[in-house]
């Protein structure tokens, strides 16, 4: 039996790979693990059946052999612990890669989420146009620090890891704002990651959901 | 040699245990691991010496035997993997506890950070009084979902774990707003965690830093 993940039946980004199932699909492709996808509609996200998988009514989730997990970070860490290819063998390098996994969601993503909240939940508020530059500056601060750390290296630590996978996906979520273009180092970093065959297979798989959604048949 | 963590030389909360070194201190106390603390001033946080430990110039960090980690989540996970007492032995229960670790920083904390940002970085803006109720509602949504999951259980999964430790500390950061009082289940949950001797030792240790800071000598 293959594991089953959940994804939006109709992703708000229309298949641009920005929803968080993309991270898990990519990790599954990196380790060569086939998987099934259960598509969940917005109303279904908040129903008890899905809440039993994800207490906060979100995607992605992961089900395998009686185990149910939520949060992309913990799903990817679980895959990394049970398969080769996502974390270094060396114990110290492995712990450092996990620092980057947490940094992606805990330090870099929060101002990016704030931008999404400003645009969607507060998009009609009179203060939003004046607030956006403040949020941009908070995102820039994190991107600048990340670019400084990366320098001219290919990856955050010695080799590609789940830390890069998660960080790159967080960065791609801010790309539509144009902010990533201000940091050539980070643009090259995300492009490098996107050229990985596993990324491309995962991207195609999530795009196929959107394409089927909008097909005329 | 004991590991060394970093903490604020002068914590903005004046010793209320809300800074993120508290999470790591608590985890170290749970496993009975003595530790040293390097206090870092605000200017020092942004200096190269500290940036080498923490690329984003924050606390806490963790140094042990040549290994340097940042991010409270990854430090606590590292402690949990190398000592008993913070994660269940059963593999599935362990993976679920790690889901809660990620949920604490990735799903529950972001709206709480948004509240802090509104109060401090945007405290002087004319829109802030009108925005605060919107942010409160976003926090309430997460707290409500968490309270529903918890129900009348003592802990998020079968037994106390690093997932509870991190979630409780995130919740305590919103307690000063009064929002936690709206959720008796969560108030009982945080109180239950705060009664653990390890929590109390960690709290006393961080308070001692603030007390020494403000002592007249």
From TrEMBL, chains A, B:
Domain GST C-terminal: residue ranges: 90-217
SUPFAM superfamilies xrefs: GST C-terminal domain-like, Thioredoxin-like
Protein name: Glutathione S-transferase
Keywords, sorted A to Z: Transferase
Entry keyword annotation includes Methyltransferase: no
InterPro entries with a match to the protein in the record: Glutathione-S-Trfase_C-like, Glutathione-S-Trfase_C_sf, Glutathione_S-Trfase, Glutathione_S-Trfase_N, Thioredoxin-like_sf
Database matches in PROSITE patterns: GST_CTER, GST_NTER
Coiled-coil segments: none
Occurrences of domain GST N-terminal (ranges): 8-87
Stored PANTHER family: GLUTATHIONE S-TRANSFERASE GSTA, GLUTATHIONE S-TRANSFERASE-RELATED
Keyword Transferase: yes
One Pfam family cited in the UniProt record for this chain: GST_N
Gene Ontology MF terms: transferase activity
Superkingdom, taxonomy of origin: Bacteria
């Amino acid at each position: 039996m293959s594991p089953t993940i959940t994804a939006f039946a109709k992703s708000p980004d229309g298949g641009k790979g920005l929803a968080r199932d993309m991270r898990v699909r990519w990790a599954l492709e990196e380790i060569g693990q086939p998987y099934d996808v259960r598509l969940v509609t917005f109303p279904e996200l908040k129903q008890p059946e899905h809440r039993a998988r994800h207490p906060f009514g979100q995607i992605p989730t992961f089900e395998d052999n009686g185990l149910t997990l939520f949060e992309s970070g913990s799903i990817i860490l679980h895959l990394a612990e049970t398969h080769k290819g996502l974390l270094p063998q060396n114990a110290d390098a492995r712990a450092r890669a996990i620092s980057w996994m947490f940094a992606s969601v805990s330090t870099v993503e929060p101002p990016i989420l704030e931008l999404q909240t400003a645009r969607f939940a507060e998009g009609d508020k009179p203060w939003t146009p004046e607030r956006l530059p403040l949020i941009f500056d908070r995102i820039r601060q994190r991107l600048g620090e990340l670019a400084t750390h990366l320098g001219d290296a290919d990856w955050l630590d010695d080799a590609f890891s789940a830390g890069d996978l998660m960080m790159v996906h967080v960065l791609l979520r801010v790309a539509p704002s144009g902010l990533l273009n201000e940091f050539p180092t980070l643009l090259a970093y995300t492009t490098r990651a996107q050229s990985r065959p596993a990324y491309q297979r995962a991207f195609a798989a999530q795009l196929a959901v959107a394409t089927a959604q909008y097909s005329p048949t």
